Amino acid sequence: MLRVTKLRYGFPIGLLLFFYLDGILGAVFPKQLFSYPYSMSSYLVVLWLVLSVFFEDQIHIPLEIWAAIAGGLFDVYYTGIFGIFVFVFPIVVALTRACYKAFPINFLSGLLVHFIDVTIVCTLSYVGNLVVHLTSASFADMLVYSLAPTLAYNLAAYVILYFPIQWVFDRLKN
Q1: Buried b (16+ CB within 10 A) or exposed e, 135-146
Q2: Distance CA 160, CA 174 (A)
Q3: Any transmembrane segments, and where (predicted)?
């Protein structure tokens, strides 16, 4: 149960902030993120959700519901197709909770879990787009031209934002 803490209001604000940062970074740095044939996707929302699982402690946030809401907004706002991220983001949260039980919570295990989560998000969105015929790229092309740069970008974002997000969660829980 989510107690009445600052986290009750701070978590959705942070999720919304990271949601818009995904789009802002894509708009501000289009040549750096989308130079042919490479394409980097910013998944700061996934980073916020993954680190929320790590830092929530005894205060349980209904992350699956928030992930589905964020996925729906992500679908409608960024892709225009409703349905892929609505399911992918809650899957990522469930996977992160499973990994949380298997690994100790620290910077390096979080990096590994985030690596796995971004890989799953990228792969499932590719498969979803392949099913509805929005992409014709081969799986090998997706790995080389999309997944690898996306992983590099999102893991760098993890390294930069891990400790500030931890600080925010510590402040919101008190």
Answers
A1: bebeeeebbebb
A2: 24
A3: 7-29, 35-55, 76-95, 107-131, 143-165
